[in-house]
């Protein structure tokens, strides 16, 4: 597989154990110029923030998937793509849901940043609290420097 092939793996299902792989290889255009020669490896997780639902199974599956797959060595960050806290977001930067949902379930021992964006459920209370948490603890795993941002990984 060359660096123009896009591979994504999905972990889903109510029990968080179904793994799907999608591989896309674009048609070669002779005029195309390869700009990026390095692979960008990341994991994305959305609609995950329900501490009362299947979060434990999802976290366990994500952890074992990262540990068991050879591609995990290339993982540079984890993208949390919204609905980080069900049902109604968080009330402030120190809301117990940060501990109950994120810190207690999503610490796998990897030294990776977790870049989060907001989903519709996150706007139901204080959406900016997720940004403020990053500003209070800028070196923490939880990273949401603004409502709109480009992670530093894309600036190197």
TrEMBL record:
GO terms for molecular function: hydrolase activity. Keywords: Hydrolase, Signal. Signal peptide: none annotated. It holds the Pfam family Metallophos. Gene3D superfamilies: 3.60.21.10. InterPro entries: Calcineurin-like_PHP, Metallo-depent_PP-like, Metallophosphoesterase_PAP. Residues 45-150 form the Calcineurin-like phosphoesterase domain. This is Calcineurin-like phosphoesterase domain-containing protein.
């Amino acid at each position: 597989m060359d660096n123009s092939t896009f591979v994504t793996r999905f972990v889903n299902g109510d029990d968080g154990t179904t793994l799907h792989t999608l591989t896309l290889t674009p048609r070669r255009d002779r005029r195309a110029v390869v700009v990026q020669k390095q692979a960008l490896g990341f994991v994305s997780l959305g609609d995950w923030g329900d501490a009362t639902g299947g979060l434990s199974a999802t976290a366990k599956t994500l952890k074992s998937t990262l540990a068991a797959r050879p591609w995990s060595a290339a993982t540079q960050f984890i993208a949390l793509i919204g609905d980080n806290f069900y049902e109604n977001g968080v009330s402030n930067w120190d809301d117990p849901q940060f501990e109950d949902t994120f810190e207690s379930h999503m610490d796998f021992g990897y030294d990776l940043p977790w870049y989060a964006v907001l989903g519709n459920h996150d706007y139901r209370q204080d959406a900016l609290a997720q940004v403020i948490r990053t500003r209070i603890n800028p070196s923490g795993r939880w990273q949401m420097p603004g409502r709109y941002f480009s992670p530093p990984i894309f600036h190197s």
